[in-house]
Amino acid sequence: MTTSVLTVLRPGLVDYRDAWDEQKRLHEAVADGDRPDTVLLLEHPSVFTAGKRTEPADHPWDGTPVVDVDRGGKITWHGPGQLVGYPILKLPDPVDVVAYVRRVEQMLIDVCAEFGVATGRVEGRSGAWVRATDGGPDRKIAQIGIRVARGVTLHGFALNCDCDLANFDRFVPCGIRDAGVTSLSAELGRPVTVAEVLPVVERHLTTLF
User: Fold this and answer.
1) Which residues contact 81 (CB under 8 A, 6 or more apart)?
2) pLDDT per residue as tens digits for the range 24-77
3) Would you call 37 helix, strand, or coil by DSSP?
4) 61 has binding-site annotation
5) Is 161 an annotated catalytic residue?
6) Which residues contact 121 (CB under 8 A, 6 or more apart)?
7) Residue 204 above 90 pLDDT?
8) Residue 71 annotated as binding?
């Protein structure tokens, strides 16, 4: 999808490092004013990525390699069945990173609501959460990790659709030890694929502005 103010690219399954290189290329073009704001919506083969605040104890127990990246936040997993979004957007002046994160959260909350999954925010923790109602822990359904350079965003969000949640048992997701992880499929008791979620996310991207 392309409009006068936003281009949305859907490249499918993309190696994480290749997508990172493409983000950096797009970021330079957007920051230079050579192309409009752009959002990549894709999936990755299984990969662990660690933000700048990751602790050694958060890493996978089995020694699986981790890609260190320059975003905020800690460690997370990306893989098939998870929709990953990389908005490359010029933020308005003065740049307010917290306000941008809140807009990303709201977009994810609205997308989940459209599928009938009630989510919200947790104080002091980014992302979209299914709040505990049965005495168990809150469950994270979408992660956020961003960077802003030259007033333009990098990295972004990941929404668990029908991914294998066992991957999150191999490390400390986002460095948080007292919460769980869930997906749209797990909450609804039916498969909810990336292909089903992708157009809904695309329709809600205007919230990011």
Assistant:
1) 43, 160, 161, 162, 163, 164, 183, 185, 193, 194
2) 999 999 999 999 999 999 999 999 998 888 888 878 877 788 898 888 778 889
3) strand
4) no
5) no
6) 105, 109, 128, 129
7) yes
8) yes
